[in-house]
Amino acid sequence: MSRFFRFLLPLAFAAVFMSCDSDTKYIYPPEGVVNRITDFYFFDDGKSFIYLSSNMNRRYDFGELVLMEIDDAGDLVYKNSLLVPSIAGKMTVSADEKDVYITTRDKHGVVRAKVVGKSGSYRLQYEEGTKGDYPDILKTKKEPYAMTLSEDESKLMVTHILNGELSVIDTEEWKVIKTSKLKYGVTEILYDKNSGYYLASHRSSGNISLIEAKETLEEFVVAVRELPIDLPTKGFDVRSLKQSGDGEVFYAVFQNTYNEDTYEYAYDEDTAPQIVTFKIEDKELKIVKSLTVAGNLGEMAVLPYSSETPEEDEESAGDDAEKGDDGDDSEANGFVRAEEETTDDSDAASEENEKTSKRIGDMIFVSVPKEEKLLVIDSARNSIRDEISYKDDKKDCHPYQLYAKSTGNTTGYLFVSCFQDDRAYLYSIDLMSEEIIKKIGVLE
Q1: How far apart are CA 383 and CA 362, in angstroms?
Q2: Band (56; pLDDT cuts 50, 70, 90)
């Protein structure tokens, strides 16, 4: 073979390869697809929301960020959507509700979208000049998942569910400026304004990572301290971590002990899934209380509630709520259903209504996928107040991902993702109504 032909042969192979690549046929998801929803966000206008279809089952070649609206008739109306890199992980939204950050586990990075327009006419879009189906992915370590913004939103803190790194992204320059090591399998991260620390939970240990992240004159510094949780029973695998409405305590949802050799959960008399309430004091973790429950737990959502207390009574209301958190006078601090409050003109009812006007607490919603139900827990009483069961529904629902949005002192919205069933429910919450939890729509 001549030297000339030996030179042409690699070029021919390259041309064939490029031709095949350019002819790749992608499978696009339908607009507004419900396909393994992993996250929600409800806008402050009280009627617009977005959800993230992750494409975890790889049915398509893309995930999707979908914008919806509740119209005047109470129907859920599709507005528009964006393709996102598959598999989508979680998202976070800026305080002004203009930027949406989305992790992609398969592509190992982050993309960001814009929310444009006014309430009632919101639209999702990528920055101008985007080529292809979505903008270039800002690359990070493998499998980015949960994330949160710094208080001034100049930094995006991204955690990785595979090896447990923490990536710090400069949102102005849009680049990774720091990578630090955490325990592997990070399930959630949040920022605590009271202490200035970030807290991260893990599926692989009974630890909470306490993260100090700050910028010095020389560099951005990250310091990590692992805080073990001394559980009343054996167990680890923290699936969800949330902060109370007043910011004073944190809630962690623990599953049972996980056997990493058999990939199974160990159930015995010494293990129990539970909801743990804890504080951070002097860089140490202090358990305030715990509630042992049954079932294999998923994620959690927290909806703060309070009554319309006059300003001069706010201090006393806070004192009453604190009593409930410590386990004293809990009967006077948990919310009470409307039908339990009203007894015919009795002094007891008047006294109960008097107490109601000072109550402050959190409704904690916890998914139990295998049992096909949600637990509704009142933080002030530290007890299960109700359950939402899906066993009698015509269509299966194994709830997992949850999201709650407060719209008033005793009202809000709750989203429930039946992840593996490709369905999601939207509920309105009104703690002072006879029907406290009301289903207002289904996404499927």
Answers
A1: 12
A2: very high
Indicate the pLDDT class of residue 237, thresholds 50, 70 and 90. confident
pLDDT at 314 over 60: no
Pairwise CA distance, residues 116 & 384, whole Å: 41
Assigned token pair, 48: 């617009």
Query: Which among 214, 43, 170 has a CA at the least distance from the CA of 158?
Result: 170
Please state, in angstroms and rounded to a whole number, the distance separating the CA atoms of residues 85 and 137: 8
Model confidence band, residue 325 (pLDDT cutoffs 50, 70, 90)? very low
Q: Are 407 and 430 in contact (CB under 8 A)?
A: no
What's this model's pTM, rounded to 2 decimal places? 0.83
Alpha carbon of 1 to those of 10, 15, 150, 403: distances in Å?
Answer: 14, 20, 63, 67
Contacts of 197 (CB under 8 A, 6+ apart): 191, 210, 211, 212, 280
Tell me the C-alpha distance between 87 and 110, whole Å: 11
- DSSP symbol at 430: E
